[in-house]
Amino acid sequence: MPMRVVLHLDMDAFYAAIEVREDPALAGKPVIVGHPGKRGVVATCSYEARTFGVRSAMPSVVAARLCPDAVWVPVRMGLYVEISRRIRKILDEEAPVVEPLSIDEAFLDMTGWAKDLDAGAAIARKLKDRIRAQERLTASVGVAPNKFLAKLASDLEKPDGLVVLPKEAIPETLWPLPVERLWGVGPKGADKLRLGGLRTIGDVARTAEDAIASLMGASMARHVKALAGGEDDRAVEHDRASRSISEERTYTDDLRDPREIDRALLARAQGVARQLRREGLVARTVHLKVRAGDFTTWTRARTLREPTDLVDPIVGAARELLASRVRLEGKGVRLLGVGVSGIAPAGARAGPLFPDADTVRAKRIAGAEDAIRAKLGDTAVTRASLVGSGLPMHHSSGKPRTKNGRGFPEE
Ligand code: TTP
Ligand code: MG
After folding, report:
1. How high is the pLDDT of residue 392?
2. Alpha-carbon torsion 30, 31, 32, 36, what sign?
3. Domains of the chain: residue spans and CATH
């Protein structure tokens, strides 16, 4: 198992830093972003303004009292969103898994790419350098074996910080902090812990779980005990909207027979549809990738009318792309891939008000296939057109599947 390496990146005084960048005359001054009126609130402020006690979400009248000489600038959301997108692009280029949390922060999972936390710190340095060079803005980054510690670490030396927080540093770094800093412990939870005499995270770490359970319940006690010991196994979840699911194979002998090519398309589409259903997702765009024997490569995409998790619309779009937008001109197919993007949770949208009978039936069959597969294993259900299609192939993704028909009802 490679060591987990998680980064948390958070831009410093994001809106305010952008405003200072846009107007260098503001540099070094206490800058407040927000409306100074009676009903206004502070969006954020420069670190100079923070020395006066000004904070995000503070009523503007309070901020004006604390820092009468502040320069107020209005919020320019469009500009901040545009810059956020450009920073996101840098993160996507440097990290395999990016989970954005807000307009100015994200988790990055470098596990397997960075062999240890020091290698993770080198990547963090590179990210900070690229953001500074491209956007003239600073970011703070935490590097740790999990999300909880990484987020905590990014905050420790703001602004322009880079903090590596290994497990060994927990007693020194984590334990002196107040219990509020435990993820999921709000003001109420903190009160409960304090009633039991627990003020710092170290107090929680040194107290038996049973004793904590009597203060805040068993499941919360288990949760805070794990965090206080620096344990957190939440996964960094790649942003769904930018995610894609695909399956591709490379063939030792180029496919030439159109029926063989079509069977391969169907098999890849089935794998993709099954993965969508397994994760409770639907997708809107279908991608086709074809590489010919001479390495000419086509990637083509088509957006469906309705998002789907069914094989038929996916293979239908892939077939159409292959027929109309790939010019094989007699060349054999060396690689074939089908993928989807534009992914959303299946429950998020209502679907057509009156689904047609075919869709209802296809959904029922897909559900039944998935159930059988769950019970008997991945190879139990195969469509009739796949039976006997013993194609020589390398498995470049997905699990190997063998031919094995079991007389499942055909559509
Ligand atoms: P934060 O990252 O919380 O704050 P920040 O980037 O300004 O400062 P820090 O150096 O401490 O990270 O939030 C990012 C942006 O989100 C912030 O620049 C403005 C906006 N924001 C609000 O509009 N209202 C709020 O209450 C908060 C917390 C943030
Ligand atoms: Mg920030």
Report:
1. 34
2. positive
3. 1-164 (3.30.70.270), 175-228 (1.10.150.20), 244-395 (3.30.1490.100)
